[in-house]
Amino acid sequence: QVQLVESGGGLVQAGGSLRLSCAASGRTFSSYAMGWFRQAPGKEREFVSAITWSGGSTYYADSVKGRFTISRDKAKNTVYLQMNSLKPEDTAVYYCAADRPDSVGSIYTATRYDYWGQGTQVTVSS
C-alpha cells in the first residue's frame, strides 16, 4: 500500500506563490507517474499537472501552464508543485495522486490514479 501526504497549502494574496509537497511512502513505492488535481467547491476534480517518475516528463493543464512547475525528488519519493502568480480561481483543495506501473488511461484523468492524498487547501485572496 502507498501512502501520500501533502503539505504546503495555505492562504496567499493574488500574485503570490506557494509550494506544495507530496511525500510517498509504503513498503514498495513504484509508480509510472504522479499528479496533482484540484477541486473547488461545487466543481468537479480537475487535472493540474503530472510528472513521470522515471523520465521526468511533465504535463500541465492549460490554466496553469507557465505559472506552475512540477518536479520530483526520487531520493525522497517526493513530488513538488511550485505555484507562482496565483489567482483567486486557483483556490481549491489540491490532491496528490500516484498511479501504478501497470495503470491504464490518460495521465490527465483521475481514474488512472490508484492512490490519493488527503488534500491540502489553497486559498488565494483578491
Features:
mainly beta, 7-stranded mixed β-sheet, 4-stranded antiparallel β-sheet
List the helices and strands and how they pair.
Layout: E1 2-7, E2 10-13, E3 18-26, E4 33-39, E5 46-52, E6 58-60, E7 68-73, E8 78-83, E9 92-98, E10 115-116, E11 120-125
Parallel strand pairs: 2-11
Antiparallel strand pairs: 1-3, 3-8, 4-5, 4-9, 5-6, 7-8, 9-10, 9-11
Tell me roughly what share of residues is in helical segments.
Answer: under 10%
Largest sheet: 7 strands, mixed
The tally of helices reads: 0
Distance between the termini: 40 Å
Secondary structural class: mainly beta
Q: In percent, how much strand structure appears in the residues?
A: over 45%
Averaging pLDDT over every residue, what do you get?
94
Low-confidence stretches: none
Q: Given the C-alpha coordinates, what overall shape results?
A: globular
Number of strands: 11
What are the secondary-structure elements, in order, as H or E?
A: EEEEEEEEEEE
What would you report as the Rg, rounded to the nearest angstrom?
A: 14 Å
Provide a descriptive summary of the structure in words:
With 126 residues, the protein is mostly beta strands. Strand 4 and strand 5 form a beta hairpin. It is built from no helices and 11 strands. The radius of gyration is 14 Å and the shape is globular. The strands form 2 sheets. Strands 2, 4, 5, 6, 9, 10 and 11 form a 7-stranded mixed β-sheet that branches. Strands 1-3-8-7 form a 4-stranded antiparallel β-sheet, with no helix packed on it.
